[in-house]
Design a protein that fits this description.
Chain lengths: 358, 292
């Protein structure tokens, strides 16, 4: 009997995951059709790639905040690592790998791995910390990463690469005719090929979703949830906390790195984009979408990312409206009285939602 | 030597400003268990109040007084409107609401004052004190240090020796038990927000006088750093916030002076990480033993 029930539960889970995937694919397909038919302006088309990398950011952060249960305020830092590693790779390999698609794919993998590595390195010292202390340390790491990248100088000339930290490279040692700035401190990085397309970004979203869904339903995913729900109980039944925390941080920052590479290949790149505001923005998506709820993260990202653009008609007031909507939504969602009021209307659906969240 | 001393003194002065802001963070955290991310923006509102008041010809002293009143009222109103309905909700929900409030204040200021930084006239008219040619202490520094020391002593007295102060300690210790002892928890929380915001207004006046500029984003970085200071000292602990703030200010000025201006923020954060790795609950934070 018990076996049968878990079987049907797994099936329900699979169905849910497929629905989520379908929502994403259908949304982008419809958006693309509407854009090409001219119903939606080109402005909207410009939102599609950012939406993809923000979705990847949100679902990867949800793995840490929602599934593992640790508040991270430094997710932007991992994105920054991925963006810069991917961008520098693409610029350096421009002539060595002429095939743009292959170069972009390699940049994605490399950027993801670099971010994942940094994620693990950061996770090691913070394993001792909990709750708000962990949050502030991730915030600190996020700020450190972008400050460090802002102080890197990398120049190529015919003699090879020249790297300098914290001070610009002495121009007298360089061959000026073949000199090319790659990283120039706090200045924006130029010359990254715009390889990211809506289709490739969408494929990356789908891959991320499939991987994250499988991780959540795997042994590791169950361990994450056990750590979240009761760390001590999980430890006492033999869940290796350190190992699983590092795994979660690796996976999460790997995908943040991928999102960063997409960003670097579709935008002008400057490190101060990845400061704490970016991390907070992603956290807002995750919390509003519902902790641990991947579909919620996606929908919240789509709505909240598009919202300031939709409100563009209000010009100066749009960010003000955004802030008010954010506050009102949080209060409506979390206040006991409001919840009781809405649960009357949403009774059927909220019962269903609870099952999803698990 | 005297340049070292002059850096040290300006570090202490900056640290005291951070400490004033950190006190607001730490008191609110201690009592409401929430990270009030909008606290930095209250500094900004305080700064703009002083700026507007002084532009319309009010004397600096009364401008600061007005700013304290505006910030206190604002802090209490924010608490009543945005945070009180979320009492008992998850701490993340409150955090996001605080971020929403922070966006709201920033954008209100953006609408009212525009995005460009404005020149701020110092509220301190004292002349700099010259000890020798390398050691000149500005009037702002001296006034900041004196006023902050007085405020800290007064605050310690208030928290440890008066009834409302003790009530605050009781609520932060155990809300339920405090209520049973006849303490009005809601009023105590409002009071904490009022005190924290008033301190932020004072900090704003000094901060904008020392770095004479103001824009809608003025409060963001000092806010984060004060938050770091509060955590450094052990969040929830009032003496911890003072020590953390001063330590942070001194480290920041020294790393600006001797290492690198651009990397000073990174160094500040690295010190925070180092201290937390050695002592996970901050310098004066209490170790919370988990019960199974």
């Amino acid at each position: 009997m018990k076996k049968l029930r878990t079987g049907s539960k797994a099936e329900a889970g699979l169905k849910n995951n497929l629905i989520t995937l379908a929502i994403v694919v259908v949304f982008f397909a419809v958006a693309e059709i509407l854009v090409s038919a001219g119903v939606l302006g080109s402005l909207f088309e410009g939102l599609l790639i950012p939406m993809c990398y923000y979705i990847i950011m949100a679902i990867s952060l949800n793995l840490i905040v929602g599934i593992l249960g640790e508040l991270s305020l430094g997710h932007g830092g991992f994105m920054c690592v991925g963006a810069y590693v991917g961008a520098v790779f693409s610029v350096l390999m421009k002539s060595a790998i002429p095939n743009a698609g292959l170069r972009y794919a390699l940049a994605l993998i490399l950027g993801g791995l670099a971010a994942g590595l940094i994620g693990v390195l950061i996770a090691i010292p913070i394993l001792r910390l909990q709750g708000d202390y962990l949050a502030i340390v991730t915030l600190a790491f996020g700020e450190i990463i972008y400050k460090i990248i802002q102080n890197c100088y990398l120049v190529s000339d015919k003699n090879g690469l020249h790297f300098s930290f914290a001070k610009p490279i002495d121009a007298s040692n360089l061959d000026l005719t073949s000199k090319k700035d790659i990283l120039n401190g706090a200045m924006a990085m130029n010359g990254v090929p715009r390889s990211a397309t809506v289709i490739s970004s969408l494929i990356l979203v789908v891959i991320t979703l499939i991987v994250i869904f499988n991780v959540i339903d795997s042994r590791s995913g169950r361990a994450f949830k056990a750590i979240r729900d009761n760390r001590i109980a999980a430890e006492s039944i033999g869940v290796h906390i350190t190992k699983y925390k590092l795994t979660a941080f690796f996976i999460s920052s790997f995908f943040a790195g991928i999102a960063g590479v997409i960003y670097a290949h579709s935008n002008a790149l400057s490190a101060n984009k990845f400061n704490y505001n970016m991390s907070i923005l992603i956290l807002v998506f995750v919390v509003l979408g519902g902790l641990g709820n991947i579909r919620g993260s996606i929908i919240a990202t789509m709505i909240l990312y598009a919202l300031p653009e939709i409100l563009r008609g209000f010009q100066a007031y749009r960010m003000l409206l955004y802030a008010i909507i954010l506050i009102v939504m949080m209060i409506l969602n979390n206040n006991e009285k409001c919840k009781a009021f809405f649960s009357g209307i949403w009774k059927k659906r909220s019962g269903k939602k609870k099952e999803d969240a698990r | 030597m005297s340049s070292f001393l002059s850096y040290f003194i300006s570090g202490i002065s900056l640290g005291m400003i951070y400490a004033l802001i950190a006190l607001g963070y730490t008191m609110v955290y201690g009592i409401a268990k929430m990270l009030n991310f909008a606290h930095g923006d209250i500094i900004m509102i305080g700064g703009f109040t002083v700026y507007t008041a002084m532009a319309s010809g009010i004397s600096p002293f009364f401008a600061v007084l007005l700013s304290i009143i505006v910030c206190t009222v604002l802090g209490v109103v924010i608490e009543k409107v945005a945070y009180k309905p979320l009492r008992g909700a998850s701490s993340l929900a409150v955090l996001i609401t605080a971020i929403g409030v922070s966006y709201l204040l920033e954008n209100l200021a953006l609408l009212m004052f525009g995005s460009d930084a404005k020149q701020f006239t110092s509220v301190v008219s004292m002349k700099p004190v010259t000890i020798n040619e390398n050691l000149v202490i500005s009037g702002e520094t001296i006034v900041t240090i004196i006023v902050t020391v007085i405020i800290m002593i007064a605050l310690s007295f208030f928290v440890n020796r008066t009834k409302p102060g003790r009530a605050m300690q009781a609520v932060s210790e155990d809300k339920g038990a405090a209520q049973l002892m006849g303490i009005n928890v809601n009023r105590t929380i409002s009071m904490t927000f009022a005190i924290g915001s008033a301190l932020a207004a004072v900090a704003a006046a000094f901060l904008c006088s020392a770095y004479p500029q103001i824009s809608p984003y003025t409060g963001v970085m000092p806010g984060i750093k004060a938050f770091v200071a509060a955590v450094l000292g052990g969040i929830g602990s009032i003496p911890g916030a003072m020590i953390g703030g001063i330590l942070l200010g001194v480290i920041e000025i020294f790393s600006k002076a001797y290492i690198s201006t651009q990397l000073s923020d990174a160094i500040v954060f690295a010190v925070l990480i180092a201290i937390l790795v050695i002592k996970p609950t901050g310098i004066l934070g209490r170790k919370i033993n988990e019960k199974v």
